[in-house]
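<given_protein>
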Amino acid sequence: MVGLAVFLAVLGAFCLAFGAQRQGSAVKADTGGLALSSYGFLRLLRNPRWVFGLLLLCAGMAMNAVALVSAPLTVVQPIGAIALVITTIVNAKDQGLSINRATVVAISACVTGSAMFVLLAVNVTQENHHVSFDDELTIVLLLALAVGLFGTLALVFKHRMSAFIYILGAGVLFGFVAVLTRIIGKHLLDPNGLALLNVQWYSVVAIVAAGGLGSWFVQSAYSGGPPDLVIAGLTVIDPIVGIAIGIAILGELRPDVHAVLAIAMGTAASLAIVGVIALSRHHPEVTKRKKDARKAAGRVP
């Protein structure tokens, strides 16, 4: 089963990488680098390249989900990070860009930091088989605050938000979605036999709202940044947020954790996030856009 899980995780990483690249190029071609509008999003639904990218992304996420069920988190989660490397190479070839040293360092920090964080987290956490309704409500309320915060930023600074803020918001929102999806799954499989009656309506509403806003942020990030950044947010920020919620709210931290391990986890998470920030600033596609913008500004009388 572990061999099959590794195969699915690798294949899923390729699907995520190529799916992100297809969607990213479709959004850029449609928006010309400008902010994505609601009409533009509806137009993307008729774009074969964008739809094909969506299918690849869905297939990649499905394969990764099966892999997570079939093998330990320590085996599967770090493999997903190679999607970032694949996306960078594929996008660079598609756009005719050369990968600079800063991008290599940033991606290395993302992959190393996220892999270290996951490996350390598995050694200091324990599964909480019973999630109380109070804890579930706390998560939903925190998610409501996150949706309100990022939703407000999107409305107020729609044409001035950077790609990094979009993908930060998507990573945070999808981290909450992953936790709530897991909780709902536990409710459905509860041996009391109530199935759907165990599921709280506000959790379903929260998932729909967060998933919708997070998806919008992902597409908006494509219009303002490289697809590598989107994959970085989904493979770095998402799991960090999910594990942090499990530790802080669901009580999944083991009682015998040494302070050194906690500091190491914080360091690994910081390294991964710094890598995402560096990628958003020094990626060759980002620097090319900045140069083109300066040239255009210089030609304006």
